[in-house]
Amino acid sequence: MWRAEMTKRQLAGTAAILLALSVPAHAQDDTPSGKRPTVSRNAPPSSNATVNLINLLVKQGTLSEEQATALIKQADDEAYVARQATRDATTKAEGAEKAAATATDAVSPPGTKRVTYVPEIVKKQLRDEIRAEVMAKAEKENWASPGKYPEWAQRIRFYGDIRARYEGDHFPAGNGPLENFNAINTGNPFLEDNANAINPYFPPTYNTTQDRNRFRFRARLGADVDLYDGFSAGLRIATGDSSSPVSTNQTFGGNGGDFSKYALWLDRAFIKYQPVQDFVGSVGRFDNPFWSPTDLVWYKELGFDGFAIQAKHEVDEGFTPFFVGGAFPIFNTDLNAGLNTADLNGPIKSPSRDRWLFGTQAGFGARFDPETNLTVAVAYYDFANLRGKLSSTCLVATATDTCDTDLLRPLFAQKGNTYMRLRNIPTVTTPVTTLNYQYYGLASDFRPVVASVQLDFAQFNPIHIILDGEYVWNTAFNRGAVGAVAVNNFAPTSDGSAGPFNGGNQGWLARLTVGDKEVKHLWDWNAHVGYKYLESDAMVDAFVDSDFGLGGTNLKGYFIGGNVGLGENVWASVRWMSANSIAGLPYAVDVVQLDLNARF
C-alpha cells in the first residue's frame, strides 16, 4: 500500500511538471476550472504527453479511470499554482529592476551608461518567496481547488438518521387495569371516592387489553462544530409525538391525523471543552455522560440537561480508569408559582420545589490481549426532592383549587413506580363541602447504586461475542415507609381487595450478543438475547426503556433481536420482547418491532 501511495504521489508530481511544460504558452493563463483532457481506456491519442502517459497506465491496469482523473485534476491545479507563482515572480522581478534603474538614474552623472544585472541567486529567492505567498493564498482562499468549502464550513459536521418502524403490541387475556398516574398529574386532579362524594368515573388507565398495530418513524438531524482551543458545540433536532424524554418516535396518523405535519423538538444543544484527549467538560443538553452498556437504568437515547465532566487516563498498557460526574436539574419551579388561596396579604407564592439529579461513576477498561476487552463501572445517583410529601391541611372545593405540595407531582412518568397522595384534605361539610381531588407523588426516595460490566471477545474477528450485565439497587427505598402511604403495587387477592404492598427496589439485566460489533456495511449482522428484571422502585420509571413492556419499571421478561446490513449505513432490525408485571395487578404484553434504518 505504501508503495502504491508513493507511486500516486510521484505520478501527481510528474504530471504537474509535464503539464506545466506541455501546455502551450497561450493557454497557461487558463484557470483550473477550464476543460481538462478526459482519461479513458479507449481514449484516442492526445497532443498532451502527460495525458497519453496516464492513458497508457490506465490501459495497463496500473491505475483506474477514477484515479487517473483525480491525478489529472491534482496535477492541473498544482501546475496552475506554479504558473501563477512564476508569473507573479516575473512581474515583481521586472518591477524591482525598474525601481533599481530609476534609483540609479537619480544619482548617476549625466551621460552615464548603465547595464541592469540581477544576480541569479536573488531571482531564485524572489521566486521562492512569491511561490510560498501564492501557495498560502491558494490554500486559504481555495481558488486552486474549486468547489472546496471555506475553512469555517469545514469545521461543521452534519449527521442524521431516519428509522421506519412497524410495531405490534399484543395483550393476553387476564390483564388488570393499570392506573395512569401520569395522565392525572399532567391534567386535572382525580376525584377520589369519599364520604361526601362518590365519583361515578374510573381513573384514567393504560390500555392492557386491546392489541394495537402502529407504523412509526424517527428522524434526527444534528451538527457538531469545532470551535477553537478545545471548544466545540452541537445541536440536534428530532421528531416525536410529544416532548417525552424517552421517545422520538412519531406515529403515522398521529398529531391530529389527515396527513397533518409533525413537530420537531430541540433534542441536543451543548458546548463542550476538551483541552486534552482524556478530559471533557459539557454543559447544555447532551448525550448520557455515564457509561451504561444496557438500558436497564437509562434509556439509550435519553438526553441529560445540566453539566458533566468525563476523565480517563491509561495508567498502564491496556488499563484505563475513568471517572464521570455531573449535576442535572430535573424540574425548576416556575418563577411565579403560587396558590389560588388568598388571605389579607394577598395570594400566597409556593416555595421552590426544584428537583435535581447528582451522579458520579468510576470504572476502568482493561485490554487483556488484542481480542479480549473488559469494562467495569460502579455509579451512584442521588435524586433530590423527588419524593412526594403530604400537604398541610388543604380545603378543596373545586378541581382548580391547589395545595402546597402539588409541585411535587411528577410531570412525566411511564408506569411502575409506587405513588402516594399529596393532598391532606379533611372531610368538611360547612361552610362548603370539601371534595377529594387528588394529585399523586412518588412514595420513595431514589438513591440507586448501579454496577455495570461488559466483556468483549473478538477471537473470531470480525465476529464478536459480547456479554453485558447491569445491576441496580435503590439504597433509599424503605419498604415500611413506602407501604404505609402507597396507593398502588399491592398484591392481588382472590376477592379483589388489595393485598399487602409488594413493590421492590432491585433490578438486573443480562444480555448475549454475537456478530459484528457495529452494522455498517452490506451483510454485516448481529443477534442478541437477554433477560430483564426491574422491580417497581429500583429506578425512576420516567427514564428507563420505553419499549420493553411499553415502558417503565415493575417488569420482567425475555427479549431477542437482530440486525442485518442492507448496504452502506442501511440496515434492518427485528425485536421481540415479552414482559410481565412483578408486583400489583397482573399485566403482560408482547411487543414486536420491525425497523428499517438509515444514517448519514
Automatic annotation (TrEMBL):
InterPro entries: Porin_5
Keywords: Signal
Annotated region (Disordered), positions in chain: 27-47, 88-108
Annotated signal sequence range: 1-27
Biased composition (Basic and acidic residues): 88-97
Pfam families noted in UniProt: Porin_5 (PF16930)
Name of this protein: Putative porin
Annotated source species: Bradyrhizobium commune
Taxonomic lineage of the native organism: Bacteria, Pseudomonadati, Pseudomonadota, Alphaproteobacteria, Hyphomicrobiales
